Amino acid sequence: MKALIAFGTRYGATKGTADEIARILQEKKFDVKVVNTKEEKVKDISEYGLVIVGSGMAMGNWAGEAEDFVKKFEKDLENKKLALFISSLKPVEEKQGKANLVARIKKIGLDDKVSKYHLKPIATGIFGGIVDYNKLNFLMRKAMEVGYRSALQKNGFKVVEPGVYDLRDWDEIRNWTLKLAQKAQE
After folding, report:
1. φ/ψ (deg, to 5) at 7
2. Could you tell me the pTM of the whole model?
3. In the sheet where 164-166 sits, what is the strand order?
4. Looking at the structure, do residues 110 and 178 belong to the same domain, yes or no?
């Protein structure tokens, strides 16, 4: 089966997640194309049996190019096996026991998009992202430092380079992809 993974990213987490999803699908004999929607415009999705759309989340919003992809192909996606995933702060909220914030991330990042664009995904995923304090503007950096820096450190999230925290759980991503592959082949 041919699969397309179209993603939008801000700090690179969604790209890394898309690449890992592609690797797992290739192991399961899918023919996979990965597209960064900021760098490449997709003209047609007719050849793909599975379409996966991923986006980073910031302030409750998808990366613009990823949402533009969904808007452009809204009708075409009705006839595809579709999966959606987002990169978010979910792992931080989970470790702090903030189930209401995890539910809010799911609603804003996935449920509202499914409803808005009349999508029927066979799978949705909420994964950790990357918090890169070096790339945040002054106001966002200050807000994130107050709201998250101590939580990141206290909950064992590792600094992968100065000011950069990687929140991704690779086993979670791989397991999600294996289940997706099985559903797509049914």
Report:
1. -140, 155
2. 0.93
3. 130-132, 164-166, 159-161
4. yes
